[in-house]
């Protein structure tokens, strides 16, 4: 069989498996990102102001390794999980050609025109392996280089004869699926996804626990306020003769517990003054949660609405430590562009010597004090509440979880 036939057969096999090797974004020289418009099925522009859904690209490495090296041949898949980036005609040699060389994300194939070669442009003293933050060039199937024309703001086009400024991109690894990647901490290791829920069916009560039947501060928690609908897990606040709220967690007795790892979810919450909320990591029961040596929780998406305005901007992260009588916390404030009322991907990455809080792949908080980093097994929970001495006047509000992933950490 010819080398080309082998390449096509290998690519088609990976397309059938649907398993990417990693997930990245690509940033142009002027700081904007490569965007598969509408998340796929359309053209590819250099216009993303920050990493978001349209900027996430799944990487299919033809070496079947999550690692990227100088010369790696890859396919890029848009965020819809269906469409691949393709260079029209396999590339061009005229940067201003409006037909050939233009990149789109309108094909479901992984064949020749969907193949890109990654070349490392910096840090050669570190070898040919490509890391987060490295500068790279992309070559189309015909050998031409891909350009962010004018440094960004237009269509991705592969028609340059060499790699200059417009052909320079910065790689940012976002979510290495399939084992591997930079975990964000200073201790070597990798993240491996062990659980994902897309909330496309009724809540699996063998995996989830919708709490019910108790008072928390100024609201009554009931499972009637927790349900799956319209592709999301919904937690509701209701004001009808009293305040009721919804809580939900992965089953605290058989959850996918992690002792170091990563949690990422796509989240939003309604504007509702004096209604508070949090996405948390809680310690596994029976581990001495309230001892002085362990934090009691990690709140990686929280708003306690200190200004009583409910606008969910800014959101916060609260790393609790000490607990019991000496409970204290370290606070971080999310960027103002990531309002909690809009859909964003929020995450916490947890390694033995660092906590990293991110939104849409952008770091907005880190914790490095060893005394504040948990070292026990934890699990995921979501909650709405009304604090004591708060009196919301809105009739209803929703906290919505579009999807959730849990990753373990492997040293």
Question: Summed up, what is this model?
Answer:
The protein is mostly beta strands. It has one helix spanning 3-17, and strands spanning 22-27, 33-36, 44-48, 57-61, 68-69, 73-77, 84-87, 103-107, 116-120, 129-130, 135-139, 145-148, 156-160, 169-173, 190-197, 208-210, 214-216, 219-221, 226-229, 232-239, 243-245, 247-250, 261-269, 276-283, 298-303, 316-321, 328-333, 344-351, 354-359, 362-367, 378-385, 396-410.
- Averaging pLDDT over every residue, what do you get? 86
Number of domains: 2
Ends: how far apart?
Answer: 40 Å
The CATH architecture name of the largest domain reads: Sandwich
Strand content: 35-45%
| Class by alpha and beta content | mainly beta
Helix content percent band: under 10%
CATH class wording of the largest domain: Mainly Beta
CATH topology of the largest domain: Jelly Rolls
Pick out the low-confidence regions.
Answer: 1-17, 177-185, 289-294
Main sheet overview? 11 strands, mixed
Structure annotation, total helices: 1
Whole-angstrom Rg: 23 Å
Beta-strand segment tally: 32
Q: What does the overall shape look like?
A: elongated
